[in-house]
Write a structure and sequence with these properties.
It comes from Alcanivorax dieselolei (strain DSM 16502 / CGMCC 1.3690 / MCCC 1A00001 / B-5) (Alloalcanivorax dieselolei). Belongs to the aldehyde dehydrogenase family. The protein has two domains: 274 residues, Aldehyde Dehydrogenase, Chain A, domain 1, CATH 3.40.605; 181 residues, Aldehyde Dehydrogenase, Chain A, domain 2. Helices cover 39% and strands 21% of the residues. The protein contains 14 helices and 22 strands. The strands form six sheets. A seven-stranded mixed β-sheet has the order 14-15-16-13-12-18-19, with helices on both faces. A six-stranded mixed β-sheet has the order 9-8-7-10-11-21, sandwiched between helices. The protein has a three-stranded antiparallel β-sheet with strand order 5-6-22, with no helix packed on it. The longest helix is centred in the N-terminal third of the chain and has 21 residues. It is globular, with a radius of gyration of 23 Å. Bound molecules: nicotinamide-adenine-dinucleotide. Nicotinamide-adenine-dinucleotide (NAD) binds next to helix 7 and helix 8.
Length: 484
């Protein structure tokens, strides 16, 4: 396949995983998958459509009664075995991820550990699907609430976190007693298929989790037209999320949507600037700027503006661009040419409206999907990047004067996923944390993702939460028993 060695070659699967079997698409249609660093085709996967999707849904439906009836402890043990296998094969899984997604190998290893952590966390949480008892309305009456799995579920996931966006959903679903059909992004199917292989090895019964690749429109339409599927969990763009939500209306399928963001990162005059720069690099340049919780707008107070820009420029200068398999690389290629075009457009738009380029500002000399890490100052809220996710290595700095202005600028977006701010003043910390319209706020912290914490957004960034006990609730129904 490539020069990169995958020790356990059975982890590199080029077929879909339905009912515990590896299978091809109807008619044998396939899709090519490439390496974004080289453009080289690394393999193919089936281009499934309606028929394959119906088979996967039927498999999940058949597997549901036995899976739901297992004790929570039994399900937890199987999830834990799946977690252990992911960690045992961390290098192979990371190699597959860097090959198809491009991210630096060290980041891929980090993502595998993060992805596995959801399986471990939900393996433990499976036992805590508590209901409750409520005093009745009449003498002798009891109100009892039990929690039951919602049933067959579906997950549609993006390319930027090919493994963790699946385990964050599947861990919660399987712990709750649901079964699942997963459709990964077409750019990164192999990480998903490897998870199918490891689920089998862990002893998770056939049909409990199924992975199908292919036509996004045909697969999602079949999922949303099926009354058997009771919940659809989607991570991706707001545009597609909104379409899916409309499709889910037909059968009143429950939806969770983890969508786009436009995170502000506010640096106040009273911030610890070194800490702020460290957080800025982590939250802006991780995955080469292709994360949904990435900073899209730096808002920096007048008094520290120049000092912050100087320190940030020095830190950006340390970043190394290259193939994710090269030693020391921190900035890998973007996923495709469309992504490169968007970053360049945002830079050009900002320049045309008066921004100044401090570093970078163009495609990288390596060509292909590489872009220079870029820092611009003098940015203003009328620039395109303030209204759309850039999804690339562009750090743009807007100067502000006072706290009220910072909050107004931060909230001036239809999105509300992550936000960040740096301040050493406890009164300001509370005021600003409460005023920011976002599902998640990093306070003197640039890395906020964790299996134990509820991840999700407000406004057009989505509905529902993933991770933590809130994440498992999404896969449970509350049933009220009225005992007379
Ligand atoms: P995308 O919306 O293009 O694709 C996501 C998934 O939807 C893929 O599996 C894709 O094949 C599928 N899809 C595409 N068109 C579809 C259609 N018409 N009907 C049904 N499914 C369709 O997003 P992407 O480019 O893969 O991912 C990047 C986006 O995901 C960014 O906006 C990012 O912010 C967001 N994201 C959000 C989170 C979060 O937790 N909030 C996490 C990661 C990524």
């Amino acid at each position: 396949m490539t020069q990169h060695n995958i020790k356990d070659s059975d982890l590199f699967r080029q077929q879909c995983f339905i009912n515990g079997q590896w299978c091809d698409a109807e008619g044998g249609a396939t899709l090519d998958v490439d390496n974004p660093a080289t453009g080289e085709i690394i393999g193919t996967v089936p281009r499934m459509a309606e028929e394959g999707t119906r088979q996967a849904i039927a498999a999940a439906d058949n597997a549901l009664p036995a899976w739901r009836d297992k004790t929570a402890e039994e399900r937890g043990k199987l999830l834990y075995a799946w977690y252990e296998l992911m960690m045992a094969h961390q290098d192979d899984l990371a190699t597959i991820m860097t090959l198809e997604q491009g991210k630096p190998f060290a980041e891929s290893k980090g993502e595998i550990a993060y992805a596995a952590s959801f399986l471990k966390w939900f393996a433990e949480e499976a036992r805590r699907a508590y209901g409750n008892t409520i005093p009745g309305a009449r003498p002798g009456q009891r109100i009892v609430v039990i929690k039951q799995p919602i049933g067959v579920t579906a997950a549609i996931t993006p390319w930027n976190f090919p493994s963790s966006m699946i385990t964050r959903k599947a861990g919660a679903a399987l712990a709750a007693g649901c079964t699942m059909v997963v459709k990964p992004a077409s750019a990164t199917p192999y990480s998903a298929l490897a998870l199918g292989e490891l689920a089998t090895r862990a002893g998770i019964p056939a049909g409990v989790i199924n992975v199908i690749t292919g036509s996004a429109a045909a697969i999602s339409t079949t999922i949303t037209q099926s009354p058997v599927v009771r919940k659809v969990s989607f991570t991706g763009s707001t545009e597609v999320g909104s379409q899916l939500m409309a499709q889910c209306a037909e059968h009143i399928q429950k939806v969770s949507l983890e969508l786009g963001g436009n995170a502000p990162f506010i640096v106040f005059d009273d911030a610890d600037l070194d800490k702020a720069v460290e957080g800025a690099i982590a939250s802006k340049f991780r995955n080469t700027g292709q994360t949904c919780v990435c900073v899209n707008r730096f808002l920096v107070q007048d008094g520290v503006h120049d000092a912050f820009v100087e320190k940030l420029a020095a830190a950006i200068n340390q970043l190394k661009v290259g193939d994710g398999f090269e030693d020391g690389v921190t900035q890998a290629p973007l996923i495709n040419q469309g992504a490169v075009k968007k970053v360049i457009e945002h830079i050009e738009d900002a320049k045309s409206k008066g921004a100044k380029v401090v570093l970078g500002g163009a495609a990288h000399e390596r060509g292909g999907n590489f872009v220079q890490p870029t820092l611009i100052t003098g940015a203003t809220q009328d620039m395109e990047f303030c209204h759309e996710e850039t999804f690339g290595p562009l750090a743009a700095v807007i100067r502000f004067q006072d706290e009220q202005e910072a909050i107004q600028l931060a909230n001036d977006t239809p999105f509300g996923l992550a936000s960040y701010f740096y301040s050493e003043n406890i009164h300001r910390v509370w005021r600003v944390a409460e005023a920011l319209e976002a599902g998640m706020v990093g306070i003197n912290e640039g890395l906020i993702s964790n299996a134990a914490a509820p991840f999700g957004g407000v406004k057009e960034s989505g509905l529902g939460r993933e991770g933590s006990h809130y994440g498992m609730e999404e896969y449970l129904e509350a049933k009220y028993l009225c005992m007379g």
